[in-house]
Amino acid sequence: MLHRQPVNLPQYTYPCCPWQLIEKQYTPHFLGQMETLYALSNGYIGMRGCFEEGDPVHHSGTFINGFYESWPIVYPEEAYGFAKVGQTMLHVPDSTIIKLYVDDEAFYLPTANLLHYERSLDMQIGTLNREIIWETPAGKQISIKSQRLVSFKHRHLAAISYEVTAINADAPIEIVSKIHYEPKGSGNRQSANYEDPRRTKEFAQRVLLPRMCSAEERRVILTHKTRSSELTLASGIDHTFASECPISINSECIADSGEVVFSVAAQAGVPIRLTKYMTYHTSSRASAQEMSTRSQRSLDRAVKKGFEDLTLSQRSYLDDFWARSDVQIESEPDVTSQAEAVQQAIRFSLFHVLQATSRADGLGLPAKGLTGRGYEGHYFWDTEIYVLPFLIYTNPRLAQNLMRFRYSLLDKARERAKAVSQTGALFPWRTINGEEASAYYAAGTAQYHINADIIFGMKKYVEITGDRAFLYREGAEMLIETARLWYDLGFFSDRENGQFCLHSVTGPDEYNTVVNNNLYTNVMAQENLRYAVSTLTDLQQSQPERFNDLAIKTGLELSEITDWHRAATQMYIPFDEKLGIHLQHDGFLDEQVWDFENTPEDKYPLLLHFHPLFIYRHQVVKQADLELAMFLLGNKFSLEQKRKNFDYYDALTTGDSSLSACIQSIVASEVGHLELATAYAFNAIVMDLRDLSGNSKDGCHIASMGGAWMSAVYGFGGLRDYDGEISFNPRLPKQLKCLHFSLAIREQLLSVEIQHDQVTYLLKEGSGLDLKHQNKKISLMAGSPVTAKLELAPSL
Amino acid sequence: MLHRQPVNLPQYTYPCCPWQLIEKQYTPHFLGQMETLYALSNGYIGMRGCFEEGDPVHHSGTFINGFYESWPIVYPEEAYGFAKVGQTMLHVPDSTIIKLYVDDEAFYLPTANLLHYERSLDMQIGTLNREIIWETPAGKQISIKSQRLVSFKHRHLAAISYEVTAINADAPIEIVSKIHYEPKGSGNRQSANYEDPRRTKEFAQRVLLPRMCSAEERRVILTHKTRSSELTLASGIDHTFASECPISINSECIADSGEVVFSVAAQAGVPIRLTKYMTYHTSSRASAQEMSTRSQRSLDRAVKKGFEDLTLSQRSYLDDFWARSDVQIESEPDVTSQAEAVQQAIRFSLFHVLQATSRADGLGLPAKGLTGRGYEGHYFWDTEIYVLPFLIYTNPRLAQNLMRFRYSLLDKARERAKAVSQTGALFPWRTINGEEASAYYAAGTAQYHINADIIFGMKKYVEITGDRAFLYREGAEMLIETARLWYDLGFFSDRENGQFCLHSVTGPDEYNTVVNNNLYTNVMAQENLRYAVSTLTDLQQSQPERFNDLAIKTGLELSEITDWHRAATQMYIPFDEKLGIHLQHDGFLDEQVWDFENTPEDKYPLLLHFHPLFIYRHQVVKQADLELAMFLLGNKFSLEQKRKNFDYYDALTTGDSSLSACIQSIVASEVGHLELATAYAFNAIVMDLRDLSGNSKDGCHIASMGGAWMSAVYGFGGLRDYDGEISFNPRLPKQLKCLHFSLAIREQLLSVEIQHDQVTYLLKEGSGLDLKHQNKKISLMAGSPVTAKLELAPSL
Known about the structure:
Two copies of one chain form a homodimer. Chain A is an alpha+beta fold. Chain A has three domains: 1-14 and 574-715, Glycosyltransferase (Alpha/alpha barrel), CATH 1.50.10; 39-323, Glycoside hydrolase, family 65, N-terminal domain (Beta-galactosidase, Chain A, domain 5, Distorted Sandwich); 362-489 and 519-573, Glycosyltransferase, CATH 1.50.10.10. Chain A is 32% helix and 26% strand. Chain A has 18 helices and 33 strands. A nine-stranded antiparallel sheet of chain A has the order 1-8-9-10-11-18-15-14-13, covered by helices on one side. In chain A, strands 7-6-12-17-16 form a five-stranded antiparallel sheet, with no helix packed on it. In chain A, strand 8 and strand 9 (127-135) form a beta hairpin. Chains A, B: GO terms for molecular function: carbohydrate binding; glycosyltransferase activity; hydrolase activity, hydrolyzing O-glycosyl compounds. Chains A, B: Residues 23-283 form the Glycoside hydrolase family 65 N-terminal domain. Chains A, B: This is Family 65 glycosyl hydrolase. Chains A, B: Residues 347-710 form the Glycoside hydrolase family 65 central catalytic domain. Chains A, B: Residues 719-780 form the Glycoside hydrolase family 65 C-terminal domain.
């Protein structure tokens, strides 16, 4: 159901430009949204797009991935096995602040007379730029140009180039470059202005405790330790300065703050160039002293290299990224400007996915990346189901890193399975440190499908990259423990002719919780069990020693593999003969259909306006659930079946989750509702640019951004990759003339260019690739494009 | 399933004596349990049975019914409509403390050389008595006799008579009589030593804030106000003193403490008699000053009347109570001592039910009465389903008070219905002030059956007492709003042939939550709807003006009554044709049967050892649910059906709730499992005396105590009162020779004496009563006993 049209941010805040996001005037009423959209990150350091002046600010924030505070979850009514340790991503000292004083007059945007204003995020260069001309009350015109980056190449480094010129007069200018931690209102679990329904709450006490700090010449380093999680943090700034004007420099620090003050006797027309280098280091083991030393080294290197070197490496990193990852569209002439906005939005999505994952290295992917503290910086299934496909096909190294991160949680997942009275391993529904942090089991722990989601992502990773080494080392162990969980959780039901049933689970759709035989969960678990069986069987034959080692390590018995095979084979798939549709879960059709007609627009999302029990007793779907199953495991459903299911369920789906529209678009596309598919895809693609969820202030919806790629490539591009076999059945919306993207497949590079009547496949690198085009096999050789005719399925 | 045998407290702690509970030696390892068992209360003031010395103590406590602190319930993950205001019954200043010093040596039980020790609760006199002879280290023998009561007649009054005699020598004796509030550890939501799974938690700040206090001569008055709920409390003590020995008296107070010190030059053999009067007053409106004045007046009156007057009125109150309420048993000779213990236990149960309700007046009945802070002093459905039947048949005035209390919550119940997205009224699952305080909706708010429970209790009250005035005034309004809730909650299901279904509800059994068509809920809701229809129809005919007033007040439309009738008539009753049994709820039989065989005894109660989701996906029942429906609405089931259902469900019922055994006993009795019924009844009757739940320290299980009466009268006595028609079909356990009880029925008094081969019915007061004895009609005239032959159904 498509009920929400793009509404919020007016178009003018980002006039279209395919590689940039440009703000042409200061717009205080979208402060929070712009901070999110303009956030820079490399997946380790994240900095919201706040002004250098530090003020006005909706919600400032610099974040370090995996840097969190833990706290005992207190339930008003507790029960056995409830998650015990909450985790919250923390603000760290803000190092971006550069305050400017001219004639002792502070530069303050809301009251400044601005002769010129432009901010832009440049997705090719990877910088956030601002150019301002400010006329002071005394009539002096001051040019302020800044360029900010968080380095993709240097994980611990960010930098700002800051250039001030007094255009038309001499003036005493003071530039105060700060690093500052604000215990109230930024380092705390703050409720202020959060719009997210599961909003981040306040800590009772300050969590970041100051340790040593130092200020020497142009360098300041602060160190902190978290109160409960006992993580150490060092944050530092250093500066280079270039100007022909006379200058004096002072620096100082105390506990939570440090600053370097540049006092310049500025001369008219002579630029003052300041470069600020910012570094962050965190550790769970190292001392404050050691972390401080690491910061010193990072800053030494940064200062030595200089800002230009940073921008060059940034550009080169992004050139490589876009070459592999860009999705290009060409529109029909009548919709050019709309298409340009879409082109911009697609790139904006991919850019933020890169920002969220690039240097996460051994860490996870927070739901909002590092652009805001929505969902407390937790890692969810978004990773494997919404973001991993894009990375697998464009940046397989990043995909592997995320898989390795999941593997690193396996021991904690084993503990968690025990805690919920099961064997095997149960990955946490939401977490930072690997411990389950979901405090509402109905829409948390009960989403056992997280296990199958992770395995699904891993399977796709292995099949598309061909990385069997990972499969046989880490993957196989994950398969054993996840399969165990499923086998232990389910049972062969006499009442269902001995079929294998999974009860009291929650699927992706959080408007139907703790149900029996959620179809998504059942088919995903089936896939998980099957993949465990086939992988272990292969491993036993191909590497018997490795198999034996693994069997010993995990206590695996051969009979377990037989059991899993039986469970997979006999998996129960709920189906309603009368309506001829699958059931989202056993009792779904027993419920009343939600009264959509009498639900006004402002009552969405429903979860903010109705008691859960009221929602649960209706046929209403928050987000793609059965539809998601039909996409991920589409080879288990006939096209006819998909059509029937889509027609029934899509009408019930409110899309109250940002994880929905992209999937609805793909399935709509497949079953022939091309206009609807286009509308859904547009929703997914502009989710944050148009603030469709109304909570972009809290951070970007990274899953929807990965989903934007999927709705282009899987949706309109018609890519399917069941069991690693590549096929295409594209369907181009009428607004588009051409859709182009590249895919890395088993170390080969495929370019796909789709037009309305034909598709051109080009293997740019590789030894040869077989694929199917509309069910016809095509064999590609490197360098030889193949153009195939596109038979259009009738649109419904 | 009967899996737990009486275990904990050894028999010797209460040698049998049918009217007393006697402790013959100081037993420190049962401190907590004895404090609970020896608690005194009149339903307004409750005092745990702690020693006068105030030490040693497991968990001291004086409570005032309805005196609570409120607090915002904080959820780690919140959702729309979750209960917002938590409420916790508070400790109030402890006024029972009397410290004794001889030769400046403190009397301290754990180290004292006791030549004699006896404590006893006397259920005929209504006092807690203690007699001790203490030999001091100096060899002086000191007799200490105390008698404590909480007055049934004077709601705000308690008293202690305290007599000390230096038997064999003169000695300086100091008696320090205190009143004291301990902010840490007693007034707070303490976790210390609580064994209840839903234990009371700590407040962050002290909640009882001291206001004015005064100490004059032998009187001390303290006043306090609660921080958040803003209730005012005055607690006061006063004393009379009688001795021929020289004495000096001093009193003082500060904030939370006051004391009166009696320094006596005691002479050998000359008794020192001190009487302490304690009074408590609470208000939500009055000032500390005003409350203090009220206390002064109460103490003035008490001192004037004297202790003897208090004991006389106490005795007379109890004489009347026992005449109406006693259940007497006579045993076969071979089991005399066991039978005596049962006789004692039955009386102990009835005594505590009286203590919990007697002077509650306009207040509710906490789950533990006022004997401990388990379940935070909340009022539950226990009131109507477990305690009300006893009160209706023996103390109808108390039953009416409880009904009036429920009516007083109606406006808040209307608000609550709105909060959970429904119309009508939804009574809170647990509350003190009328607001829902359940913070776990699955086993709280989802128990919508509370509405029907209240109406069920009200219907029984009206039918047995004949109080149609209440029905037509308060009752009818409650019926309208509860019927509305049901009609709004449910729907006519096309998939169930248009039958009326109730989805996403939780029945009494908290091991199966948020289910569809819980049979108990459906039949109870049906009864609620039917009673609404019949009452309103009667009212419209008999008192059209009153009906019109009510219709205007509630906005009632006649079509609603038609709707309710249709919903009741078409109510869906889940039944499994294959097994020929009713379903506890729609999917119950789809679950796996719990693996009882491999569940060791120490894994019960299951809720403390398994994750809720694990429990939910099994066929396992915490407490009588379908069985309870078969008891309360037994006329909706054939005997054959009850047998089949009982055989299936009783084997799955762990009895992990104290609300279970009594019901299981009654149904077991009805379907012919007389030995099992006897065992269950024994469990219900000695629940606290044998600490069967292991948490008697936290307070008595008042519901099980009311249930003890039901298992005697409804179970073995075979009473049924469907729609107010009285019938008997007794089944006496082989251990008993005779069972005797009295019932007040529509202002007549019926005595029933059951023997193995006959039953004698005697109408002691009244104009004539018709009843059925084993399906044969008997008409009784006052004063003319009728003896009927008892045909014994074969025991299974």
